[in-house]
Design brief:
AhpD-like, 2 domains, mainly alpha, about 70% helix, 7 helices
């Protein structure tokens, strides 16, 4: 059961197709950047959503040559290598959580971070990579618990 969306006066104005896409892609929440774009520059938010959708289509749409979890893993590697992005949890974490929700595993997360270690060094791995792997483990455990709960309900 998903939590209701907490709207601001500005997010209420987001056009429905863009609103639905963002909520589906961002785990039922608007990010701080979405809220600010909605408040100050709605065309910017619309452009962002359109551009992002061309690269990261929603569920059910053709995903292109790379599966969605691979695209997310690439985003994780880029953010961790650069040490940028990711919001309050740090580089790579939000993309890693999303990658797990669309099919990645903690093993894939660590393999991606091993590439970071090889390409960008131990500092990137220690500063951000470990946090990314722990986020993957956490998200994977949440998904497994939800699946187990559903299976228990079905068997009753």
């Amino acid at each position: 059961m998903s939590k209701p969306v907490v709207d601001t006066e500005h997010t209420k104005r987001i056009p429905k197709p863009i609103r639905n896409y963002l909520l589906e892609e961002f785990n039922g929440k608007f990010s701080e950047s979405h809220k600010l774009m909605a408040q100050y520059n709605m065309p910017m938010l619309e452009g962002f959503a359109k551009f992002r959708r061309s690269i990261q289509p929603p569920k059910g749409d053709h995903q292109g040559a790379l599966p969605k979890h691979i695209k997310e893993l690439i985003s994780v590697v880029i953010e961790v290598t650069l040490g940028k992005g990711g919001g309050h949890e740090g580089p790579g974490v939000s993309h890693m959580r999303h990658a797990v929700r669309v099919g990645a595993t903690p093993e894939m997360a660590h393999e991606a971070m091993a590439l970071v270690f090889f390409l960008a060094g131990m500092t990137s791995y220690v500063s951000y990579g470990i946090n990314v792997v722990r986020a993957a483990e956490d998200e994977y455990a949440k998904l497994q618990a939800a699946r187990n709960k559903q299976a228990t309900k079905k068997s009753k």
